[in-house]
Amino acid sequence: MERTFLKVHGSGNTFYLYNTSDENEFNWVELTKWLCQKDNHNGADGLLLVLPSKSADAKMRVINADGSEASMCGNGLRCVARFVCENLDKQEAIIETMKANLKVRKEVSLLAEIPTYAVEISPVSFSLTSLPMEYKQQTEIQHQIIPEFSATVPYTAVSVPNPHLIGIVEQQDIQNNAHQQELSQHLNGENNFFKDGVNVSYVYPMKNDTIFVRTFERGVGFTNACGTAMTASALVSRLNNIVDTDVVTVFNPGGFVKCEVKILVDGYKLTLIGNATVTSSYVVDIMDNEFKFVSSQQTGEQKLYEKCLELVKKETASFAS
């Protein structure tokens, strides 16, 4: 049977998107692993499923490239937000995710008429049990040196709701990713700290309202961008006076976003704003667990997004390769 998949990305974080009314239509694990192989049209970071919801306008599931399932994905949510809003002819919608129903809306373009959407990132928790993480019977880790990880990098553990370890680093740790890679691979293998693994982001302060973030994503590896990681990084930067504005520009290897951080009496309100680009559509023949690409068609939207990448290169030329 032939089915149509869209290829989409938020900040270069690339996914296939599939809309279905049957949550058990296919073996999503095997299908995702096949779709995401690098030799299959350059692969992808995962599969976004758009499904019916009893409590929202639609439901989103996120299957990572390795077949594991993520509780949330900020970049993917922007792409799903666009798909749902355009299909329903609405400017705003509610999307059900694993942990919460989240508000999404169409936004004014950040750059060059690129389709842009704002999505709520929630819930937020600094409790180590929410990641989960174990470290010396502590309940939280905020901007703290952890000698087992690094003698110089202060780390914060936070779930949004995906688990994140955020390190504020000097220029050398952005120019050379060796330390981040070694630590990330350790923490996503057999270790005594994170039994389910963790997303590891290194944050380099650029200006009072701008940061650069590189993320090793659980189940993926180094990725062009991770939406929840960028939002968590903006929150950690704001709480520790790395930035001093509520709206933070976040550059990453795949583009840039804006993160709005509102610190409230009873918590935080986080909003991720960035592109939702549809690059192409693919027809895939699916029979049992055998898959084959039948045809593809480009949209032309990626050429427009290249202007965003030009800005990233210009702004990060002094420290990011």
Structure in words:
With 321 residues, the protein is of the alpha+beta class. The protein has 2 domains: 2-121 and 275-314, Diaminopimelate Epimerase, Chain A, domain 1 (Roll), CATH 3.10.310.10; 128-272, Roll (Diaminopimelate Epimerase, Chain A, domain 1). It is 21% helix and 40% strand. It has 6 helices and 19 strands. The protein has helices spanning 28-35, 74-88, 171-175, 178-187, 227-239, 301-316, and strands spanning 2-10, 13-19, 46-51, 58-64, 69-70, 92-96, 101-107, 116-121, 144-145, 154-159, 163-168, 199-207, 210-217, 221-223, 247-252, 255-264, 267-275, 277-287, 290-298. It has a 19-stranded mixed sheet that branches. The chain is globular and about 55 Å long. The mean pLDDT is 96.
Output the keywords.
19-stranded mixed sheet; 321 residues; alpha+beta; single chain; Diaminopimelate Epimerase, Chain A, domain 1
Annotate the secondary structure layout.
Blueprint: E1 2-10, E2 13-19, H1 28-35, E3 46-51, E4 58-64, E5 69-70, H2 74-88, E6 92-96, E7 101-107, E8 116-121, E9 144-145, E10 154-159, E11 163-168, H3 171-175, H4 178-187, E12 199-207, E13 210-217, E14 221-223, H5 227-239, E15 247-252, E16 255-264, E17 267-275, E18 277-287, E19 290-298, H6 301-316
Parallel strand pairs: 2-3, 4-6, 11-12, 13-15
Antiparallel strand pairs: 1-2, 1-18, 3-4, 4-5, 6-7, 7-8, 8-17, 9-10, 10-11, 12-13, 13-14, 15-16, 16-17, 18-19
